[in-house]
Amino acid sequence: MTLNVDLVSDFVCPWCYIGKARLNQAIADLQQKQPGLEVRLNWLPFFLNPDTPAAGEPYRAYLEKKFGGPREVDALHDKVAAAGAPDGVNFAFDRIAVRPYTLKAHRLTYRAQARGDTPERVHSLTDALFRAHFEEGRNIGDTETLADIAAACGDRREAVVAYLNGSEGTDAVKRMAEQVRKLGVTSVPFYIVDRQFTLSGAQSAAVLGAGLLQALSS
Q: Where is each DSBA-like thioredoxin domain found (predicted)?
């Protein structure tokens, strides 16, 4: 038995990082009850801020302008950190200097899926991208940084640099992001299960599991 889950996400979205951890737990819990179940996860791109400069922008200044000031940003970070901790997501917002444009990170994920990388490798790559940004404060809009991340996940560094310095995958990623918008997705994470059930937001593992189970029963 197979479930197909489209996960709409952006790598600079903290709730997407939490949502991924909770989805992983929901899938693991469901597979314990349904040992033969295969869940195929397909990543779809979303740009929280499509107008982010290609070189990125100062992280803290962007947030303070968007949310009203230092106090508001600190409160938001505290809330997100408290939400992620029980799921093993350990944010280090103070380490983030750059809010990156995530086109290259999405292209890297697209490349892995399009060429048929194993689910384990795609999982490793997406986890590493989130972790690099939110826990290590690395600039995931930078080609060299992304090449290091991909190489640590088993890719060939030189091939990744050549790919990211070119334009391959750019139109496909932008087209997918536009298609997602046309479906009415305006916030992430967003889950589409077997193209019939949808869930929005960083729901608990229990809620996500119930949604997956509902799709199985339909």
A: 5-207
